[in-house]
Amino acid sequence: MPVIWIPGQGYFGNAYLVGSVLIDAGVLPSVIEPHREDIDTIILTHCHFDHTAYTREIAHLCSACVAIHPLDAPGLTEDGMSLSLQFGSRSPGIPPDRLLSDGEQLGPLTVLHTPGHTPGSISLYFEEERALISGDTVFTDGGFGRYDFPGGDRTALARSIERLASLDVEGLYPGHGAPVRHGGRRHIEAALQLLRAGYG
């Protein structure tokens, strides 16, 4: 089962499709339309508006349930936590149908609580494919998520990236920028080294 990349536009985050699961909802519903019959679950890696903007519309389009970590759930209905006002908009205004916990299994995906960018940030590990969907916790080329937003925590972010660096990761699928299909773990290790060295 492949990880299908749906590129984000402008400041908005990537989305990914794994079987019947859509990860993140910052892409236009028209882009999701061809997959509407396939999707039954939307998993949000965190509550920021660039990843959740079209959650309500896509959930209705696909008749899909919405899942997020409980610590980020308020950001689906609160403008401050979602950062939606920075985008000149309002929060998605849709409460989640399901709250996710660390270690939970959704089909082939394992939920990993990776706080730091937000309190309830998660990553999703697809062990069979050695693939990691990392949200805004870690990016390719040694990048990592900001921790200066409300609820951000540099120490927690470092612990989260350290955890991800311990996984067998070949494909790295970040919240922004192009994914890499080979050597993903090296990108995670580079991010950890840069964060520990005081960059960012």
Write the layout of secondary structure elements.
Elements: E1 4-6, E2 15-18, E3 21-23, H1 29-32, E4 41-43, H2 49-52, H3 55-62, E5 65-68, H4 79-82, E6 98-99, E7 105-106, E8 109-113, E9 122-126, E10 131-135, H5 154-165, E11 171-174, H6 184-196
Parallel strand pairs: 3-4, 4-5, 5-6, 10-11
Antiparallel strand pairs: 1-2, 2-3, 7-8, 8-9, 9-10
Helix pairs in contact: 5-6
Please describe what this structure looks like.
This protein is 22% helix and 20% strand. By secondary structure, the protein is an alpha/beta fold. The strands form two sheets. It has a six-stranded mixed sheet with strand order 1-2-3-4-5-6, with helices on one face. A five-stranded mixed sheet has the order 7-8-9-10-11, covered by helices on one side. Helix 5 (154-165) packs antiparallel against helix 6. The chain is globular.
First-last Cα distance: 35 Å
Task: Please tally the helical runs, counting DSSP H or I stretches of 4 or more residues.
Answer: 6
* Strand order across the largest sheet: 1-2-3-4-5-6
Query: In the CATH hierarchy, what is the architecture at level 2?
Result: 4-Layer Sandwich
Number of domains: 1
Largest sheet: 6 strands, mixed
Query: Uncertain segments of ≥5 residues (pLDDT<50)?
Result: none
Percent of residues in helical segments? 10-25%
Strand segment tally = 11
Q: Outline of this structure?
A:
The protein has 200 residues and is α/β, with parallel strands linked by helices. The chain has helices at 29-32, 49-52, 55-62, 79-82, 154-165, 184-196, and strands at 4-6, 15-18, 21-23, 41-43, 65-68, 98-99, 105-106, 109-113, 122-126, 131-135, 171-174. Strands 1-2-3-4-5-6 form a 6-stranded mixed sheet, with helices on one face. Strands 7-8-9-10-11 form a 5-stranded mixed sheet, with helices on one face.
